[in-house]
Amino acid sequence: MRAVIQKVKKASVSVDNKLVSEIGYGFMILLGVKDTDKEEDIEYIKKKISKLRIFEDNEGKMNLSLKDVGGEILMVSQFTLYGDARKGNRPSFSQSAKADKAEKYYEILINQLKEEGFEVKTGIFQTHMEVSLVNDGPVTIILDSERIV
């Protein structure tokens, strides 16, 4: 499972020129589910999102978490995070999970984050979306549950 986390001042998702979701200060998260992901991968990504400290404290150091600053989450599913363009010019998405599994894991992660008290808004799964954001910093972190220990 991969998550691209951007610290944002604001972010939104629109479909067919209609606003679907928007947040203020917080995380804009693009989430990709791999065909071999297990539920342990969801737990790893959830824990990292919950505890990631990329907000500045009074001394300007990245010591504060999303919960510390009362930030929100905008989560958007993005199967292209597993695009492989090493061969040729058109990426292969064969490592991306099929839609049913990807949606299930996406929803599980959203619900688990909500259970931890986070305000989570979403795009619309398997839909062409327009994502807008103001990246703060800029700060962008990539998480991958296939971490090398």
UniProtKB/TrEMBL annotation:
Its EC number is 3.1.1.96, 3.1.1.-. It is found in: Cytoplasm. Its main location: cytoplasm. It comes from Anaerococcus tetradius. GO terms for biological process: D-amino acid catabolic process. A motif (Gly-cisPro motif, important for rejection of L-amino acids) lies at residues 137-138. The gene is dtd. It catalyses: a D-aminoacyl-tRNA + H2O = a tRNA + a D-alpha-amino acid + H(+); glycyl-tRNA(Ala) + H2O = tRNA(Ala) + glycine + H(+). CDD domains: Dtyr_deacylase. This is D-aminoacyl-tRNA deacylase. PANTHER family: D-AMINOACYL-TRNA DEACYLASE 1, D-TYROSYL-TRNA TYR DEACYLASE. SUPFAM superfamilies: DTD-like (SSF69500).
